[in-house]
Amino acid sequence: MSSGKEPAPGSTGSAPSIRRDAERNRQQILTTAREIFARQGLNVGLNEIARHAGVGVATVYRRFPDKEALIAAVLRDDIAALAVRTEDALRADSAWEGLTQLLHAVARSQIENRGLWETITGAGHGQELTARLRTTIGVHVRELIERAQQEGTLRAGVSIGDLLMILLMVGEVASSSEAVCPGAYHRYFDLLLESLRADASKPALPPGMSESDASLIMQSRAQGRSRPASS
């Protein structure tokens, strides 16, 4: 493992060697941060990341000017993969199939990649990434909802706010049950998704919350605190 000490300018180390050391440190920081963010979320400090990576915190700052830059570098591939999944969903044989496959992928992130989930919900760090996700992926999800309702597979009145709340419910089940019964949340997610299927025998849905309210609730929950009650 690297000592984390990079030769200072003007030292006797050759330029190629210095560049190799710098790149090795950068990759070690990224690998470590990716593992820690996925497991613990984005609130982990740079000092802890540096310690686990075996480098000095000054080395982290030389490679990444601030924590937001490190988060962006770590999550770039994850966000790109989610964008590809969203585009694949639009090309599915039916909008229902595409929508449910995408929702399953997002639900898995709550268990497999806590940092990505916090970015999706906007829980503190990575706000620029959150805004980008909502601008690009949100547009496609709304399109999937509209197309599924037009093809008669998705219940009328279902909105993106409803989907956000369902993801939150599934996340609660997953976080509570994963240690005891790994993967059990899939069953309950499927049951919830079935309730969204269009069926003439189902009664009209009562009014739901707005997308902005649903987003605020998800953000507050992801931050580990409840939203204050309004006076």
Topology diagram in text:
Layout: H1 15-40, H2 46-53, H3 57-63, H4 67-90, H5 95-112, H6 114-121, H7 127-150, H8 160-177, H9 185-194, H10 211-222
Domain HTH tetR-type: 23-82
DNA-binding region: 45-64
Keywords: DNA-binding, Transcription, Transcription regulation
Descriptive overview:
It contains ten helices and no strands. Mean pLDDT is 84; it is low at 225-231. It is mainly alpha-helical. 67% of the residues lie in helices and 0% in strands. The chain folds into two domains: 15-65, Orthogonal Bundle (Arc Repressor Mutant, subunit A), CATH 1.10.10; 74-222, Tetracycline Repressor, domain 2, CATH 1.10.357. Helix 8 (160-177) packs antiparallel against helix 9 (185-194) and helix 8 (160-177) runs parallel beside helix 10. InterPro entries: Homeodomain-like_sf, HTH-type_TetR-like_transc_reg, HTH_TetR, Tet_transcr_reg_TetR-rel_C_sf, TetR_SbtR-like_C.
